[in-house]
């Protein structure tokens, strides 16, 4: 018969709070299941971690999981440094550091910024903001020839494209997993929803020309998508890369449609209303948000709309 025990062990968390270890060994002691609850260090990204460890006769497999509730605890402290302009000197490129080049106002870059925060990589990935209206020439010449953001400098290479990058960060860096690797149904649906992001964005942007019906259909799709799984308020139940992919755009669409087109995207959509409430609690997302008034002004300018 399996037995249960609980102990604390500071050895597994050098310099941090103790880890609580619970294990259930089998009668032949060949398989052991352990749970490690790692409390955050002071002044670090304060997300409690649950680590599951399986021991198979000398072979250990570990898996870290962070619930949506845990991601909403504590706070992410990061001061926004001024964006680099055409008169700014470049960083010491390809010096072994990992850098994420973004624009504070770009929703595509925001996706990767959020992922970096939620993966607890603030100290491992340096944020380099670029002024898109006054881009430094060295960015195109020396860093990323497509001259777009986001771009990630890692292992002396630079890669881009936001959806590729959020997956890259999740699979190539330590930290809480943001992808449903062990649930085939959720994994398949995640891919489907990521593939739909461009269609969703284009439909809503089309509504800015005056036909709000495009936005109605787009947000009806979101409402239905949010009802697929019932184990949490997010697209896959628990917080994931899918939520990160949609959040920067819904953040922009909601205030613009409300102010300019008098359209409330949450009206008659309880799932979307709850999703917005919950996504706004995610600490990795909070520091990346823009002022709604600035969002509306920016979109008006882009679409040549008078105030």
TrEMBL record:
Domain GST N-terminal, first and last residues per copy:
96-177
Q: Does the keyword Oxidoreductase apply?
A: no
Coiled coil start-end: none
Q: Name one GO biological process term.
A: response to toxic substance
EC number(s) given by UniProt: 2.5.1.18
| Pfam families noted in UniProt | GST_C_2 (PF13410), GST_N_3 (PF13417)
- This protein's UniProt keywords: Detoxification
Record has Transmembrane as a keyword: no
Q: Which Gene3D superfamilies match?
A: 1.20.1050.10, Glutaredoxin
**Top-level class of the enzyme under EC nomenclature:** transferase
Matches recorded under InterPro entries: Glutathione-S-Trfase_C_sf, Glutathione_S-Trfase, Glutathione_S-Trfase_N, GSTL1/2/3, Thioredoxin-like_sf
Q: Which reaction does it catalyse?
A: RX + glutathione = an S-substituted glutathione + a halide anion + H(+)
Tell me one GO molecular function of this protein. Answer: glutathione transferase activity
Q: Name the SUPFAM superfamilies for this protein.
A: GST C-terminal domain-like, Thioredoxin-like
Say which family it is in: Belongs to the GST superfamily. Lambda family.
Name the chain's protein. Answer: glutathione transferase
Provide the organism lineage as a comma list.
Eukaryota, Viridiplantae, Streptophyta, Embryophyta, Tracheophyta
């Amino acid at each position: 018969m399996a037995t249960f025990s609980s102990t604390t062990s500071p050895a597994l968390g050098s310099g941090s709070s103790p880890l609580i270890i619970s294990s259930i060994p089998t009668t032949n002691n060949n398989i052991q299941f352990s749970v490690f609850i790692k409390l955050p260090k002071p002044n670090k990204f304060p997300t409690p971690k649950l680590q599951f460890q399986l021991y198979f006769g000398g072979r250990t497999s570990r898996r870290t999981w962070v619930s949506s509730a845990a991601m909403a605890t504590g706070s992410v402290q990061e001061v926004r440094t001024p964006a680099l302009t055409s008169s700014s000197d470049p960083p010491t490129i390809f010096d072994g550091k990992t850098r994420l080049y973004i624009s504070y106002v770009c929703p595509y870059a925001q996706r990767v910024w959020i992922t970096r925060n939620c993966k607890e990589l603030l100290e491992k990935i340096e944020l380099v903001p670029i002024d898109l209206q006054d881009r430094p020439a060295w960015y195109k010449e020396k860093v990323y020839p497509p001259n777009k953001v986001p771009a990630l400098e890692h292992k002396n290479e630079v890669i881009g494209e936001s959806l590729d990058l959020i997956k890259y960060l999740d699979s190539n860096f330590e930290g809480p997993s943001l992808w449903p690797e062990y649930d085939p149904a959720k994994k398949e649906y995640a891919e489907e929803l990521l593939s739909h992001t461009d269609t969703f964005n284009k439909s809503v942007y089309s509504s800015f020309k005056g036909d709000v019906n495009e936005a109605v259909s787009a947000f009806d799709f979101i409402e239905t998508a949010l009802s697929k799984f019932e184990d949490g308020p997010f697209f896959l139940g628990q917080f994931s890369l899918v939520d990160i992919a949609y959040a920067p755009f819904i953040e922009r669409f909601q205030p613009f449609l409300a102010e300019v087109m008098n359209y409330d995207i949450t009206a008659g959509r309880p799932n979307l209303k709850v999703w917005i409430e919950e996504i706004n609690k995610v600490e990795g997302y909070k520091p990346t948000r823009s002022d709604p008034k600035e969002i509306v002004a920016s979109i008006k300018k882009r679409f040549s709309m008078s105030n």
